[in-house]
Structure formats: C-alpha cells, structure tokens
Design brief:
195 residues, Rossmann fold, FMN, flavoprotein
C-alpha cells in the first residue's frame, strides 16, 4: 500500500480575489498551501486575479480573454483541488472573484473539491462563506469542503497571521478536504480515456 506522500501530487490551484497586494487573503491562502504540502504531495499554483490585468477585466466572455487568463481558467478546471479565497467587499466576494468564476466553464468545477476561504474587517462578515460563496459553488456543482476558513482583521498584524487558533482551523479544513480530493483524483485518473 502506498502512502499519501508517495501518491501522485494533488494539483492544487488557489484563486485569490484580492484587488491589490500585499493581501491578507493571499497570506491566508499561502498558509493553507503550506499546510496542504505538509500533509500530502502537491503541485500548487497561486492565481492572484488583480495581476491578470485588462485582458481579464475587459473580457465580457471567455473568448475575449487573453492567453494568460485562458491558462488560469484551464488550470482551475484541471485542478484536483481548488482553493477559492476572497476578501469581503460590501458583504460579499469581490467583483474580480465573481468575474473569474463567471468565465469558468459551466461544468468545469462539477464534482471538484473546493475549499472556501475569506477575510474581512470584522467577525460580522464571517457568514460570507455560507451566504455568498457556498451558493456560487453550489451552482457550479462543485463539492465544497464542510469547513470554510474565515479570518478577520484582528487575526493579523499587517499580513502576518497572529491568532494561533487560525492554524487549528486551517489544519481541520485541510484534514477534511484532502481525502476527498485524493479519492476524486483517483477516480478521474482511472476513468481517463487514453488519447
């Protein structure tokens, strides 16, 4: 029997909907990626949406998006696990975040594990994961991990995470999602049609 560390690496793609850098949301995602890498073999890619520029923001439809945007969309659609993270803006995800997932193929995330994460100014925004993010990914037919991760400004000093409880929450969320991501990746690899 092979261990999880000797298995094929999980292809993990993190999408961060922050509108600028440095970003608390990116800091949270980097912690999640480190925690994943400590638990199982991974190949990771971090997509910070604000870096995609006018070829992304000016695309009303996917066919209008530039090559870099298409590459990012394909990476998400081909991932074994997606980390979807956004700062809270006016009670919901950012416009960049929604625009990106509007361009993802309608079935590109079907049955794909997605770990939801968000940051906000206070704990009053903590339900953004349940009331805004989870319905969006439900529409896309993704499998959202039961535990989302929400951090408020009080958990940070700048972009440094100070609250020790955050590490426990991240560990719990990762422990929930890794077995599902591995199982679904194995099913996909066994059902792949040879070219």
């Amino acid at each position: 029997m092979t261990s999880a560390l000797s298995a094929e690496p999980l292809r993990v793609v993190a999408v961060v909907g922050s509108v600028r850098a440095p970003s608390k949301t990116t800091a949270l995602v980097e912690l999640v990626l480190q925690t994943l890498a400590a638990r199982t073999a991974t190949e990771t890619r971090l997509i910070e949406l604000h870096t995609l520029g006018p070829a992304f923001t000016g695309a009303a439809e996917r066919e209008q998006a530039g090559a870099d945007v298409e590459d990012a969309l394909r990476a998400v659609e081909g991932a074994d696990l997606v980390i979807a993270a956004t700062p809270v803006f006016r009670g919901s995800y950012t416009g960049l975040f929604k625009h990106f997932f509007d361009l993802v193929d309608q079935y590109g995330l079907a049955a794909k594990p997605v770990l939801l994460a968000a940051t906000g100014g206070s704990d009053r925004h903590a339900l953004v994961i349940e009331h805004a993010m989870r319905p969006l990914f439900g529409f896309l037919q993704a499998w959202t991990a039961p535990a989302g991760i929400y951090l408020s400004s009080g958990d940070f000093d700048g972009t440094t995470i100070l609250n020790p409880e955050v590490y426990e929450r991240v560990e719990m969320a990762v422990a929930d999602v890794v077995p599902v991501a591995r199982a679904l990746a194995n099913i996909r690899s066994h059902n792949a049609v040879p070219v």
